[in-house]
Amino acid sequence: MGRYLKFLIVGIFFGIILVKSEAVSWYRIFEMFKFQSFHMYGIIGTAIITGIILLLLSKQLKLKTIHGNYIRVPIKERGLPRYIIGGSIFGLGWALCGACPGPMYILVGTGAFTVLIVIIGALIGTLIYGLFKNKLPH
Amino acid sequence: MEYILQPWPWYISGPCFALIMFTLLYFGRSFGMSSNLRTLCAIGGAGKKIDFFKFNWKSQRWNLVVVLGAIIGGFIAHNCLSNPIDIDLSQNTIDDLKTFGFENAGKSLLPPELFSWEAAFSVKGLIILLVGGILVGFGTRYAGGCTSGHAITGLSSLQLPSLIAVIGFFIGGLIMINFIYPILF
Fold it and tell me: Sign (positive/negative) of CA torsion B34, B68, A43, A61?
């Protein structure tokens, strides 16, 4: 249990920030895709800029993980169709139900239990991908 | 305390997401929420029929603990740290939503027109939530990540595949809002 405690704390922090930033709100996602507010772009933009700085700094300072390895980000495989088609399909769903895979769970925590239907859908979608993975262009 | 109860500005919450990503890297893991869906399918026994789910899901337990924490965090933030809950949407958004039949936009986290029990269990409402979920589950696994894995982790590490994926997120989102919403609502 002890080694999982730190992940529980990270998760709690994640849930609190997503709610307090309003990024869990369906309305904010609609507004973002309508380009009618800077709010979501500010969040994502400052997250990326801070992330770039943290990763550059950790490289410069040769920071290591708790396991003693250098900090590094997993490299995404090369490819085009999977990113553009898969990304677009996710975008359709994100704009329709206003929740990406983090907020789904967090919304349940806020008491929005009908979001469980979205989660069930997401599990079905993942299963469908697993079924047809080998037939899809990647 | 007053500042905590108000919605947090983007320049506070944005860097916090980067800190979460970095903390997980420091713990030797990576930030990615959609992979939990694959883990949950594997736990449910999908690996017996489909190879994609045949992997050692126990190595992913840490990420399910993050999910559990996120649910608790959502509960705490919503019930103990939020007052008032109103969302300060732009007037254009409120007006546009009204033309789609969404009243009182921003008075709650989610529109009751889609997420109330009545709406969610009407035929149309159920299909919207279920299909939305299916698109999210299928799309994120096909693209190999979602907002956390691609938009935050991938773009922070300047990876081209993640940029392509994020462009895809917007292609899909813009098609949905501009072409499919007018048909649905």
Answer: negative
Mapped onto helix, strand or coil, the DSSP state of residue A102 is: coil
A110 touches chain B (CB under 8 A): yes
Mind listing the pLDDT tens digit for each residue in B20-37? 999 999 999 999 999 999
Q: Give the pLDDT of residue B4.
A: 85
Q: A96, B128: Cβ pair inside 8 Å? A: yes
Chain A residue with the nearest C-alpha to that of B142: A86
Q: Which residues of B touch A79 (CB under 8 A)?
A: 161
Q: Do A105 and B67 touch (CB under 8 A)?
A: yes
Low-confidence ranges of chain B (pLDDT < 70): 85
Beta bridge partners of A64: A70
Q: Which residue of A has its CA nearest to B38?
A: A126
Are the C-beta atoms of B125 and A62 separated by less than 8 Å? no
Of A117, A77, A126, A36, nearest to B88 by C-alpha is: A36
Work out the burial of residue B155: count CB atoms within 10 Å of its CB; fewer than 13 is exposed, 13-18 middle, 19 or more buried. Answer: buried
Q: Output the CA–CA distances (angstroms, integers) from residue B93 to A26, A31, A126, B116, B176, in the order listed.
A: 12, 6, 32, 21, 16
Q: At what angle do helices B61-80 and B35-43 cross, to 10 degrees?
A: 110
